[in-house]
Design brief:
This is Baseplate J/gp47 family protein. The chain has helices at residues 16-27, 60-77, 87-94; strands at 2-5, 37-40, 42-54, 99-106, 117-131. By secondary structure, the protein is an alpha/beta fold. The strands form 2 sheets. It has a 3-stranded mixed sheet with strand order 4-3-5. Strands 1-2 form a two-stranded parallel sheet. α2 packs antiparallel against α3 (87-94).
């Protein structure tokens, strides 16, 4: 049996000390015939970069701030083992009131992960692309 651990600290890579703690906790509860292997999740770093185009009228600064807040929350919520970062999920996070169009530069095709990997956002850059009518 393989147990994959994602740390809540740093980029999520489990320290040797955390792996030892998990191994010790599982030692007393595992079936005697099973060998338990505890490993750190393999962290898959990615950065988000997008240009947002806006409808005319609303305060672009407010919409940009809300898009940033929701994108931060999306990245934090998806920081789980086996959680793929999807393009449609990124678009949904950035498409707030006032945003007409999201032009996603990266990750252009999303971030696929396996059941032993976890995505880790290294940075978010949302660019004010002006009013879409211009």
């Amino acid at each position: 049996m393989v147990v994959t651990v994602l740390s809540r600290e740093g980029d999520g890579t489990a320290s040797d000390a955390l792996i030892d703690i998990v191994s010790a906790a599982l030692e007393g509860v595992r079936p005697q015939t099973d060998q338990v292997i505890v490993q750190s999740a393999k962290v898959v770093p990615y950065a988000i970069r997008a240009t947002l185009r806006f409808f005319s009228g609303p305060d672009r600064g407010v919409a940009l701030a809300e898009a940033r807040k929701r994108t931060d929350r999306f990245a934090a919520d998806m920081r789980r083992i086996g959680m793929e970062i999807t393009v449609d999920g990124l678009h949904a996070a950035m498409r707030v009131a006032g945003v007409q169009k999201v032009l996603l530069d990266s990750p252009a095709g999303g971030v696929p992960v396996t059941h032993e990997q976890a995505p880790y956002c290294t940075g978010i850059e949302l660019i004010d692309g002006g009013v879409a009518d211009d």
